[in-house]
Amino acid sequence: MTARPDLATLDILAIAAHRDDVEQTCGGTLLKMEQRGYRTGILDLTRGEMGTRGSAEDREQEAAEAARILHASWRGALDIPDGRVESTWENKLKVARVVREQRPRIVILPYWKGRHPDHYTASTLGYEACFLSGLSKVDCSAAIPAAVVAGVPPATLRERPQDNRQDAGATRLAPHRPFKIIYATLYYDVRPTFVVDITEQFEARFQSLLAYKTQFSDQDAGKDLFPAENEIRSRIETMARFYGMLGGVEYAEPFLQKEVGLVDDLVMIPVKSI
Ligand SMILES: [Zn+2]
């Protein structure tokens, strides 16, 4: 285990617009990092109340189960309306509050282009919230906190259950800026700058997606659920194989970083050229 002694904070926080986005785009990577001894967390910006199948409550239970399968230490959900993720000041403060509470070194965001407006807006919103979170004069202690779906609230929140938010904010919500922001690109056709080998985690990641029974089972009432499940599996597997092929492994998840890669030892650079 290489986890940091300060168990109240996360090493990696994945932020996404909808419940099940993280399971589809970077769930294998989160699980792999947990297996390496890092503490991982998930922040869903919305609660899925616009979904045609199942209620927000159903989806909350499913999200908790998915977090358990991915061994996430914490999962929270904000109250931003589903289908209306907007990069407003208010929303940025809500996300910044979570960043200050969880203090991740790495933040995973969705890629900033896409078909669904919630996805690409979540990218900008997340980036700007990470920036604001590092500014000492920005006070986000009054922003509505994330509802805890799995894991426990930040330590000082548990110690101060009363309405003592301003006080708690003064001690707890110190500025924090993640060291690194990377983008999960699976939803968009863009060449990733790196892929993470999830061959060992692929099966569990698939199971975490199936935890959303209201979304991925009962695709057609009266029919056996296996055909639908097989179809989902084949789509997920094809994508994972494609990105795995780019990295010379069986299954992988794609990411993009804005920065250049820094190399110390040419002999250690992975992925064969010819
Ligand atoms: Zn989504």
Q: pLDDT average, as an integer?
A: 89
Which range best describes the helical content: under 10%, 10-25%, 25-40%, 40-55%, 55-70% or over 70%? 25-40%
The rounded Rg comes to 19 Å
Give the biggest beta sheet. 8 strands, mixed
Could you say which small molecules are bound to this protein? zinc ion
What's the helix-strand series? EHHEHEHEHEHHEEHHHE
Structure class: alpha/beta
Number of helices: 10
Number of DSSP E strands: 8
As a percent range, the share of strand residues is 5-15%
Strand order, largest beta sheet: 5-3-2-1-4-6-8-7
- CA-based shape: globular
Q: Which spans of ≥5 residues are poorly predicted at pLDDT below 50?
A: 1-5, 158-171
Q: What's the N-to-C terminus distance? A: 36 Å
Task: Give a description of the structure.
- The protein is of the alpha/beta class and 274 residues long.
- It contains 10 helices and 8 strands.
- It has an 8-stranded mixed β-sheet with strand order 5-3-2-1-4-6-8-7, with helices on both faces.
- Helix 3 runs antiparallel to helix 8 and helix 4 packs across helix 5 (117-133).
- The protein is globular and about 55 Å long.
- The two termini are 36 Å apart.
- 43% of the residues are buried.
- It binds zinc ion.
Annotation keywords:
single chain, 274 residues, alpha/beta, 8-stranded mixed β-sheet, disordered N terminus, binds zinc ion
